[in-house]
Give the backbone structure.
Amino acid sequence: MDQSVNLEYPESEAASLKNLVFRQDAAPDLFLGCYLRKEEVQIDSPIPNPNPNNPNSGNTSSSSLELVGYIVSTLVSGDHLTHSSMSSHNPSGDAVCIHSVCVSTAFQRRGVATRMLKEYLQHLQRLNNNMNASTSMNKLKRVLLIAHEHTIGLYAGVGFVLIGQSSVEHGPDPWFEMVYTLDH
């Protein structure tokens, strides 16, 4: 978890370690990490696709893996994000609230965030498809997030739709709410 704090937003917008631990404990199925073997962590090397199901594939020990990106989410209810909904986890919520899409500075602008987001949205769809009566989680209807203006294109590129400026204030710059609708 210590590695993840180092990938977060500027300090004025970053989640505390306490918040990250809470989110991971509350919604472990809604976390995705992109790990590379340390020998693959070279600035000019191609980035393999993220593997959320088994970051230790290939019998690589976790100590030889480096976290280069992650997505952190919780469940919320409703069609829009509020400061209150972003500060909690509602286990019976039908919307995923993405709190963070973080990529190590050395790996930014190399398609890592796009690949993670595509894999993450497929993961959420698989969760929906695998739900049965014994699952306490509701079918997920949508994925919500807030983004700074300069990242709207990233999210739109994987299918998110801009709703408009968010009422959520966190840090000095305005946020814009976006939504992705999941298949039922």
